[in-house]
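job 3f2a | input accepted
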Amino acid sequence: MPAELTFIAPRRAKPPRHLADLDPEGRRAAVAELGEKPFRAEQLARHYFARLVSDPAEMTDLPAAVRERLAEQLLPPLLTPVRESTADRGSTRKSLWRAFDGALVESVLMRYPDRVTMCVSSQAGCGMNCPFCATGQAGLTRNLSTAEIVEQVVAGSRALARGEVPGGPGRISNIVFMGMGEPLANYRAVLGAVRRLTDPAPHGLGISQRGVTVSTVGLVPAIDRLAAEGLSVRLAVSLHAPDDELRDELVPVNNRWKVEEVLGAAWRYAETSGRRVSIEYALIRDINDQVWRAELLGRLLRGRLAHVNLIPLNPTPGSKWTASRPEDERAFVRALEDHGIAVTVRDTRGREIDGACGQLAAAER
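job 3f2a | predicted structure (365 res):
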């Protein structure tokens, strides 16, 4: 990764190696290193990714002595549940996890009539320092491993498969990397997680790449690097302001890569992938919700393969930042639509359960 994309967290012990950290070839090699036949790797992967089990007692197609050893070495526990909050009659579940070193991360499962979306964290904390974001104000603790990211989805998949979420047994159809952290600042682990989540069973969870969205505040070299991977995942750019003067304040990385550069990289990604770019825009009262800013945004996006996702800000306790007035939100939407821009206002699930990213972790700390 280019030097300008290296965001260094404090030195900490690494998470234990896990099956989900490895591609199929790496798993076979790891199993062989343990003195077992390489085909055991596929058996182990089938249990974890297809059957969603990690308890060796349930792996009855493996000899007892083998299963205990393989599970101990390649399926170590990664995330311990700390707290779970539910909303929307149980169809929204926010989970707080503690990693092996005490780091706290969050994930959210949201069940809709036609889909199930999982919002996952890619870092413990975040180093982007956006002032309106609870995670950004907490700072960066460390990057998550590929397996720690995948385990958030596996845990959600288990809950769905067991019928623990209202609506009966189901499957996760969509993954959004919009939880704690800046995904493209943890590029290698996030890319590995995308592969594990989308590889067909038994090598992965078999979720369609088109159901995966990777968000970024605008790390331009990493966006270009992602475009070269040949994936069909959606790119989401957390823009939050169409002008550099305000975006320098709201998204400090804009001091390095300006709006024009960020959007240029987004259009290159759209051209390469054929996927429409999602422009994420948190509406903040009297800060970025003026009609003239909507007009400017409309001019920047007109004729581009883009969709604007307006996000009513979920305010954090004690913050001066709060959601726009309903009438200002409606005026912003109309101004964008007048420019022919596709726009939606995000469903604000989870407000009553500290739904904003980082709020559960902040309360626990």
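job 3f2a | The chain has a mean pLDDT of 92.
job 3f2a | closed
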